[in-house]
Specification:
With 265 residues, the chain is α+β, with helices and mostly antiparallel strands. The strands form four sheets. The chain has an eight-stranded antiparallel β-sheet with strand order 11-7-8-9-13-5-2-14. Strand 3 and strand 4 form a beta hairpin. The protein is globular and about 55 Å long.
């Protein structure tokens, strides 16, 4: 029954997005942005600009960081985002959304089994971005992004309620899938939309250039730590790799640029 109300999450999200992007009077920006930052528990000291320089709450939310506040790991692969790593698990099994809820890589990437076979020996890392987190997303390793797919869908919350209530949450919500290749192997970076995330933006260009569901072939060279996109309000990033990462079953906080380690097994 919940699924029939999915369209309402889109309407609410776009309304909230429009409100967040409403230009603020210059004289009130400092107070409003400062209050907004405190409400969502964001760290004002890390932002690239002073609160008075942001024209809206939405612009502050998608803020860039000061240079040097996120040192880049020297490992071949790093976290693509700030947030909480919910888990890092083996890819060769149904993936656990939450206890009793499973999904597959094929469903997540909207591909057939044959095309995702290369990931069967790899790993999946799920990173949840809370409202207070920095909301730009970065390349986890150097390489070439070879395709981009934009899947339309509802914008269910990706918090504990959504994980418990919405079957195949990450596979039904709107999402952008970037497929890449590197010296380590192939990888996919999935930016999952959520309630109040009315827009997912890519540094590659306007997603309107991609028909809904279409896999667009691209040649986009990225360096590890290079920015690839941004969210508006909290969401989830899922990294799928053809190579094994060290597993992590218990959630922990992570920052963009922090090392992810290859499995030695």
């Amino acid at each position: 029954m919940l699924a029939s109300f999915g369209f309402l999450t889109n309407i609410v999200s776009h309304l909230v997005g429009a409100l967040a992007d409403t230009p603020l009077p210059r004289f009130a920006r400092g107070v409003i942005i400062g209050t907004f930052a405190r409400l969502i528990r964001a760290d004002l000291s890390e932002a690239e600009m002073q609160p008075t320089a942001y024209r809206s709450c939405g612009e502050y939310f998608a803020r860039a960081l000061k240079l040097g506040v996120r040192p880049l790991a020297t490992t071949p692969i790093c976290s693509p985002a700030d947030g909480t790593i919910r888990n890092i698990t083996a890819a060769a099994q149904p993936l656990e959304q939450i206890k009793g809820q499973k999904y597959t890589i094929a469903e997540l990437l909207a591909e057939n089994l044959a095309s995702i076979n290369e990931f069967s020996g790899g790993s999946v890392a799920v990173i949840y971005l809370a409202p207070h987190n920095y909301h730009r997303v970065h390349a986890p390793l150097s390489g070439m992004i070879e395709s981009i797919r934009h899947i339309k869908g509802p914008l269910w919350p990706v918090n504990a309620w959504g994980l418990n209530k919405i079957k195949n949450l990450f596979c039904v919500n709107e999402r952008v899938i970037m497929r890449g290749r590197s010296t380590l192997g192939t990888w996919a970076l999935v930016m999952v939309g959520a309630t109040n995330v009315g827009r997912i933006e890519l540094n590659w260009g306007d997603l309107k250039r991609i028909n809904a569901g279409e896999s667009r072939t691209v040649t986009w060279e990225v360096e590890q730590g290079g920015e690839v996109g941004r969210f508006r309000l909290g969401s989830t990033v899922i990294l799928v790799t053809s190579f094994k990462l060290q597993t992590l079953e218990q959630a922990r906080a992570v920052r963009y640029g922090e090392a992810l380690h290859l499995s030695q097994a």
